[in-house]
Amino acid sequence: MAEPVTKITPMGVMILALLSEDDMHPYEMVRLLRQRRDDRLLKITNGTLYHSVARLLEQDLIAEVGVDREGNRPERTTYTLTPRGGEVVRDWVRRELSSAELSTTFRVALAEAHNLDRQEVVDLLRIRQVALEEEHALHAYGIDDARARGVPLQFLLEIERQQVLLHAELEWMRSLIDRLEADEIPWGPAGFEDSDRYRAQRKAARR
Fold first, then answer.
1. Which of 93, 89, 110, 91 is nearest to 38 (CA)?
2. Is the predicted pLDDT of residue 38 greater than 50, yes or no?
């Protein structure tokens, strides 16, 4: 069987990250993901989440810790994160955070970067920065070469757009690294207070 980190989906990572906060049942997971607007990262449906939970259970990344029933509601199974599941989250974030891909996986990795130490995040982002700089230079050369050869602009629009996106991504990446290194962004448990707002959010998601 392939290593979990190579098989896990962005949805699976988000579920594991939720369970790193506390034990939960799938209904609460769905509610929390939507309340936090994580559906901006990927489509969240009850079906895909429950399917992901089943896959994570098969891989021993999560475990059942209880079943409860309240009133006329269906039984709800509560899950917990296994030590292996916690390590898979960190490994997945490490892999995707340093990737040069402009994709959903990187967006999820960035959203879950707080699972790693600040310095490790900086180091991984620097790896991504180098890869993006190389890709940016390659696009710049390609555009200049195509124009020199008289390639009509209408055939270069996608390359031109990608070049602009890469430039903007690099500018933001450099700024983020600077802010992280200057401790301008509170990080880890010390940078998060278990506020009344968070407790209210959890309480609402359990209903």
1. 110
2. yes
